[in-house]
Design a protein that fits this description.
Number of strands: 9
Largest sheet: 9 strands, mixed
Oligomer: single chain
Helix content: 40-55%
Number of domains: 2
Number of helices: 11
CATH topology of the largest domain: Spore Coat Polysaccharide Biosynthesis Protein SpsA, Chain A
Mean pLDDT: 92
Strand content: 15-25%
Low-confidence stretches: 142-149
Length: 306
């Protein structure tokens, strides 16, 4: 078997149906891939949905349940049960185009070495009404250069074929099974924002990860994101930056005091009011730093960071 597709899920049964339907419709031999779903403690009807889907699946399909422990642990469980030569990691709100598997496979055939991985392209689903905030999240790099947005930075990869660990996005990425089974997600990173980047950095250091970007391996993100959810994510990123800083101090993920002071200034209510009128993207950037600092300062109060 060539591919194992591993999908963690949590309380998204309706979106998961669309995700799986798209995977059943791949223009790739059905005998050459399997789908593994790990239910991370869902409280909706996910188990009922998965049982129904398993009975009519046109491909090898399996699912597992675990108490809510986070996406990283869920992916580890799926990866541990994978039979394919290559593991494709997807999100449960990701809708694959019919060519997704073929495009991942095409690059892996060009780069069969174990350390080679393939990053596919993710953009908002065409059916969604993309808000200014969502646009900023996706194209922050083009808008603010090195400052970037805070979801994806595919705009920084336009015209290139290589990426690095900072773009190790587990919403659409594939790696050789042998590498992932020996190097799993660190369960310490249970919050949003760092578990994938941490693994990407660790693989770079340990096996010399070579991440190839294929803009034709397209998938759609089918998930409206409002300011409340975005704010929660930024708080998590700020809080968890202490975790990655403790494990890899050389990455300097906790900003210097000088940078923190700058973030405090630009996220002051008066500054935010001005940015909101003058430049919406700068406003979102400053607002992101407000929430990031909230999580960062909360982290300083945790004894394990002292």
């Amino acid at each position: 078997m060539r591919f194992s597709i591993v999908i963690p899920t949590h309380n998204r049964s309706e979106t998961l149906k669309d995700c799986l339907k798209a995977l059943f419709e791949q223009n790739y031999p059905k005998s050459e891939y399997e789908i593994i779903v790990v239910d991370d403690g869902s409280q909706d009807d996910t188990q009922v949905v998965l049982n129904k889907i398993k009975r009519r699946s046109p491909v090898d399909f399996s699912f597992y349940y675990q108490p809510n422990q986070g996406q990283g642990v869920a992916r580890n469980k799926g990866m541990g049960n994978a039979k394919g030569e290559i593991i494709l990691l997807l999100g449960d709100d990701i809708i694959a185009t019919p060519e997704l598997l073929s495009e991942h496979d095409r690059i892996h055939k060009l780069h069969p070495e174990e350390r080679a991985a393939v990053l596919g392209f993710v953009t908002w689903h065409p059916k969604l009404c993309v808000t200014p905030l969502m646009s900023f999240m996706e194209r922050g790099g083009a808008i603010l250069g090195k400052f970037g947005g805070n979801q994806f930075a595919f705009d920084l990869l336009e015209g290139t074929e290589r990426a690095d660990y900072r773009l190790f996005y587990t919403s659409n990425i594939s790696l050789k099974s042998a590498v992932l089974k020996e190097n799993k997600f660190d369960p310490w990173f249970s919050g949003y924002g760092w578990e994938d980047i941490e693994l990407g950095y660790r693989l770079t250091q340990k096996v010399g990860l070579e991440l190839y970007y294929n803009s034709q391996a397209i998938a759609y993100h089918d998930h409206m994101i409002g300011e409340e959810q975005w704010a929660s994510r930024m708080v998590d990123i700020g809080f968890s930056s202490h975790l990655i800083n403790k494990k890899y101090p050389e990455l300097k993920r906790v900003p210097s005091r000088r940078k923190q002071a700058i973030f405090c200034i630009i996220s002051h209510p008066l500054a935010l009011s001005a940015f909101k009128i003058l430049n919406k993207n700068l406003y979102f950037y400053a607002l992101s730093k407000k929430y990031f600092l909230e999580g960062l300062f909360r982290g300083y109060n945790e004894k394990r960071y002292v």
